[in-house]
Amino acid sequence: MYRVSVDYSFAAGHALRGYKGKCENVHGHNYKVRVNVAGDQLNAIGLLVDFVDLRAALRKIIERLDHRMLNDLEPFDRLNPSAENLAAYFAAELGRAFESQPVRIEAVTVWETDTTSATYYPAPVRGASP
After folding, report:
1. Across-strand partners of 11?
2. Is 130 within the bounds of a domain?
3. Residue 99 belongs to what domain range?
4. pLDDT tens, residue by residue, 52-97
5. How many whole angstroms separate alpha carbon 54 and alpha carbon 99?
6. 29: which strand partners?
7. Is 124 or 90 the better-scoring residue by pLDDT?
8. Is residue 26 assigned to a domain?
9. 28 - beta bridge partners?
10. What percent of the chain is predicted at pLDDT more than 70?
11. 25-38 burial, b if ≥16 CB within 10 A, otherwise e?
12. Rounded distance between C-alpha atoms, residue 28 and residue 45, angstroms
């Protein structure tokens, strides 16, 4: 099994609906996102996935969120923009971007600060390899 990771950062604002405390108010974070992809086989030149392609796919998703108010953007206009939900969102979007490749999204971690993060582990697709 091979694992490849890329990190990317962005800034955005949000407010947690239904939260009792400071985070119910509008505030912002300098987010960091780490994507781990995994697979059993390398391609003809010895790569699981090109770092450039993985970063480009992540950048495309982040460009939609960067320096924006997350609560105003779909799906976070109805889904709370928590670190947990952001991690699941990135995993789903990246899963679609790489569905034709022999890799799977293993985990996505979203940091709101240097010391707080949430990680989402998508369920493996039955019958899929890896």
Report:
1. 30
2. no
3. 2-120
4. 999 999 999 999 999 999 999 999 999 999 999 999 999 999 999 9
5. 13
6. 12
7. 90
8. yes
9. 13
10. 95
11. eeeebebbbbbbbb
12. 42
Q: In this structure, what DSSP letter does residue 49 have?
A: S
Residues 101/49, Cβ–Cβ less than 8 Å: yes
DSSP SS3 for 119: strand
Nearest-angstrom CA–CA distance, 112 and 87? 11
Q: Would the pLDDT of 33 be above 60?
A: yes
Of 70, 7, 71, residue with least CA distance to 33: 7
- Whether 59 and 8 have beta carbons less than 8 Å apart is answered as yes
CA-wise closest residue to 77 among 66, 88, 67, 68: 68
> Alpha helix locations (H) across 1-130?
51-65, 83-97
The tokens for 119 are 């990680």
Q: Is 129 inside a domain boundary?
A: no
User: How far, CA to CA in Å, does 55 sit from each of 18, 78, 90?
Assistant: 34, 27, 12
Average of pLDDT values for 3-21? Answer: 96
CATH number at residue 79: 3.30.479.10
